Structure to design on (209 residues):
């Protein structure tokens, strides 16, 4: 299957493969069968399906309406919700999740928005957060004009070449590893592990307590 992009928000990697963060959450699910998982920025549901097949109960959220794709999976352990993930408490009111997955999504928020969002996620999570973000040292960072801008103000579009190369048309906030860990900690998360991938992206596993 070819990689797909939706409305300038990069490619949907999870449709084609599970990366190291995806695999870590599958290990968690194996150790906590029937747990409730929130998949933020789910795309068309590649990882949501894997998690449901591993016996998780998954609520997937994306701003694009992938209802038809999710219905085609015919899996009653997956629920799809269309909406802005920053309105989390409205989209899934009174729901708590054991773990949350948020891959390649949070860089579409300004830094201050990301702090507030991660605090809201923490309020509806009982255990862990599995998360990744595009690193400023990645290939995308090479075509990113905001590298020298302070993290509090860093939010801009890629160069014209970068837009075409990576199918990202929207402004983004890219992070160094230190900045990403600081973001997570500012929102109250305990960073258990944080690493940089071979592609220069930054990934973390966090706990609530």
């Amino acid at each position: 299957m070819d990689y797909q992009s939706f409305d300038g928000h990069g490619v949907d990697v999870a449709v084609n493969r599970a990366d190291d963060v995806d695999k870590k959450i599958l290990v968690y699910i194996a150790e906590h069968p029937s747990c409730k998982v929130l998949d933020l920025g789910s795309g068309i549901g590649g990882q949501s399906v894997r998690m449901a097949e591993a016996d998780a109960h998954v609520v997937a959220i994306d701003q694009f309406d992938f209802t038809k794709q999710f219905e085609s999976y015919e899996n009653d352990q997956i629920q799809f919700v269309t909406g802005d993930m920053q309105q989390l408490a409205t989209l899934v009111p009174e729901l708590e999740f054991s773990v949350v997955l948020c891959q390649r999504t949070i860089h579409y928020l300004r830094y201050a928005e990301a702090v507030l969002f991660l605090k809201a996620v923490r309020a509806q999570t009982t255990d862990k957060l599995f998360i990744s973000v595009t690193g400023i040292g990645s290939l995308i960072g090479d075509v990113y004009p905001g590298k020298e801008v302070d993290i509090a103000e860093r939010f801009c579009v890629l160069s014209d070449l970068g837009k075409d190369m990576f199918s990202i048309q929207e402004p983004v906030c890219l992070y160094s590893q230190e900045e990403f860990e600081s973001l997570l900690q500012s929102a109250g998360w305990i960073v258990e592990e944080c690493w940089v991938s071979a592609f220069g992206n930054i990934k973390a596993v966090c706990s609530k307590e």
